[in-house]
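=== RUN LOG ===
request id: a7f3
mode: sequence -> structure
chains: 1
length: 423
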Amino acid sequence: MARTSTHSYDVAIAGGGLAGLTLALALHKAGVSVCVVDALALDARTEPAFDGRASALSFSSYRMLDVVGAAEHLNGDVQRIEDILVVDGRPYDGLKPGGPGRDQLHFDRREISPDPDGEPLGWMAENRHTRIALAKACEAAALPTLAPERIIRMEDGAPGRAALVTESGARVEAQLIVACDGKFSRLRDQAGIRTMGREYGQKGLVLTVAHELSHEGVAYEFFMPGGPFAILPLPGNRSSLVWTEKSAAADALKAMDEEGFQEALEARFGDFLGAVKPDSPRWTYPLGLKMAETFIADRLALVGDAARSIHPIAGQGFNLGVRDAAVLAETIVEAKRAGLDIGARASLQPYERWRKTDTAALSLGTDLFNTLFSNDHSLIRLGRGLGMSAVDRIPAARRFFMRTAGGATGDLPALLRGEALRV
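=== RESULT ===
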């Protein structure tokens, strides 16, 4: 695409990350003209050094990736999650090894999908592999992109349209601009949309580890005094770690030499999967809660982290962005079918109503869980242990939580049911 002229689309998406590309593919395949504008070339986000994170994809999110043509490009780069074990864990104390504690909550996908080849509780994939799959799907679909190109601002366009203006002078006009530009969204701030939330004073240390024994598709969430410690299965005898600590402790762990970090890793991880060792560099990410007061403005909709960012305690960050994309795509397609202005506030209000309830519930839930579980108070530890044990004994409660985590409760949009959209 030439960078010195004006181009016109139904929708222009600012940001070519996971949520932005998923939405773009959904709209493109539905017959909505769409363009993605991003500051980085799409292949720049696929380098191993770009981002060490991995994401848990709920089974409903994976259905959408399948519909938009991305799942087929993941091939052997995804791992089924067969079980989730939530544990009130303990670190190594010099006498006893770390690892699973007495109080546990076990989610077994066979309770909701007894077929051996049925849907798992979710899928794990390194973010770079998901980006590669989405980029390949975009290339196969000949989806218009403008990258690398940095957006300067959003401004009014022709009547009934808005425009993204880039550093090189390119101008992309559309009825609707979608901000998928992250939790520090420039477009959200330019639109005057306020955010609310707080910082947790925690950071997530992220890395991949190799271990001697097979994880057998089990994801572990240990609740430690410093914060959750998640062991998430990847293909092979490898797992992604999200190790939450107070910010200073996380920074110290990142800065340790290899010998010191190996000792700290063994103390925290335990030996239930045999010998363990780092298999990637280490990254740290500050953690907090941030939610936009509104998800829409004149000719603008917020999606993914631009709308909200939450604690990774439930592994739902990317899934929330996928749900945003599914709902917004359906909202746009229905408005276009009806001959409505897809960028008008009235046309976008169903998207905001649909998504804010889910967002508020999950945001407040993760905030509460982090507060309750990121401490070592004896009475609170006793209470949460009893609570986990009680839920573990109630099959209906376990099945409800599994379906909720999988995104299969409530009024699901078509794409999360595995159904394609068409104008």
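=== NOTES ===
The first strand starts at residue 6 and ends at 14.
The chain has a mean pLDDT of 88.
=== END ===
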